[in-house]
Amino acid sequence: MQAITPIAPFSDLRNHSKKILSQLDNSPVVLTMRGRPMAVLIDYEEYNKLVKRQQELEAASKDAQPSRLSLRDAASLLLNDYQTDEDLTAFTALDGDDIYVAA
């Protein structure tokens, strides 16, 4: 079970900054203004971990993008062969499944 994130009004940050900052060792602190969440304070090391993880995810996503495009191109080429090659077309007729082209 995850601990409940502490919530404090901005005024507490001004008046009780030492107490609020000490809570960052355990979890982030949500700061509110007029009862609405406005900001989140997190430990500096945790922030660095989040930034690093985000960068890793973005890099992995960029690396995966060309693979998706090349797989799509390969599938398109295979579909053309599948529709025009007599041996493959005969197999399709035996299989009984229709061929659908993805848009």
End-to-end distance:
44 Å
Largest sheet descriptor = 3 strands, mixed
Report the C-alpha radius of gyration, rounded. Answer: 28 Å
> How many domains is the backbone divided into?
2
Continuous helix count? 4
Keywords:
single chain, 103 residues, alpha+beta, YefM-like fold, three-stranded mixed β-sheet, 3 strands, 14% strand
How would you portray this structure in words?
The protein is α+β, with helices and mostly antiparallel strands and 103 residues long. The protein folds into 2 domains: 7-42, YefM-like fold (3-Layer(aba) Sandwich); 55-93. Helices cover 62% and strands 14% of the residues. The chain is built from 4 helices and 3 strands. The protein has helices at 10-15, 17-23, 44-84, 86-95, and strands at 7-9, 29-33, 36-41. It has a 3-stranded mixed β-sheet with strand order 1-2-3. Helix 3 packs across helix 4. The protein is rod-shaped and about 80 Å long.
